[in-house]
Amino acid sequence: MLNVALPKGRLGERVYAMFDRAGFSCPQLLENTRKLIFENEECAVRYFWVKPSDVAIYVERGAADIGVAGKDILLEYTPDVYELLDLKTGRCKMAVAAPVGFRDDPRRTLRVATKFTNIARDYYLKMGREIDIVHLNGSIEIAPILGLTDVIVDIVETGKTLKENNLEVTQDIVPISARLIANKSGYKFKNSEIMRLVAGLSEQLSKGEAE
Ligand code: PRP
Rounded to whole angstroms, how far apart are CA atoms 61 and 74? Predict the structure, then answer.
């Protein structure tokens, strides 16, 4: 049985469609219930819906053999897992954003609000820029509007949230997309199933069927 942690939500549903085409189907998964675990014995697969930011924890600790996590989570928490494939979906970017017209004064410590404190710290360390990080859990965009910080480091997908709050991207940090990850010992012991899945997904990716 291959245990798969999928991110709950639209991305997870899109990714499941790819797993389905790769031969790991479990039709009940898309039924509108509040159930979180689904199994298809015929295909020897068991799926769990988990919070997107928790997928890597399930995989790292072996509760799931494989999972799908955003590159943002992998960069921020550096879980001890194998990253097997870029699934080329869930694409967005990590960026610095500030109120329109903001000018950085390099003589002052830059105040940065973010959920991604490690990514932000690494980015500014490489730039040699002194910062003061304010860790927030959501609605990051509000911080510079209220004067809590000067800028934010956050995920930008369509750019709509920034625009509607009169903010703009000032620097791109890194492109983000969904990645297939594997538990290190699961990868060894369930290698043939995992390789069959990887081959099925790779074929779709090469045909551009992912999105
Ligand atoms: C993310 C991110 C931005 C928004 C960007 O938030 O933190 O707020 O999406 O998307 P856009 O560029 O398409 O507008 P999310 O919805 O994950 O919620 P959060 O506020 O809890 O981070």
Answer: 14
Specify the residue with its C-alpha closest to ligand 1, atom 2: 155
Q: Report the separation in Å between the CA atom of 186 and the middle of ligand 1, taken as the mean of its atom positions.
A: 32
What single letter denotes the amino acid at residue 95? A
The CA 184 to ligand 1 mean position distance, Å, reads 31
Reading the block at residue 43, the tokens are 């295909």
The pLDDT tens digits for 42-67 are: 999 999 999 999 999 999 999 999 99
Which of 91, 137, 161 should be mutated for ligand 1, with most atoms under 8 A from CB?
Answer: 161
pLDDT tens-digit series, residues 114-154: 999 999 999 999 999 999 999 999 999 999 999 999 999 99
Q: Using alpha carbons, select from 90, 93, 97, 113 the residue that is nearest to residue 155.
A: 93
> CA 201 to CA 206: how far, in whole Å?
9
Contacts of 31 (CB under 8 A, 6+ apart): none
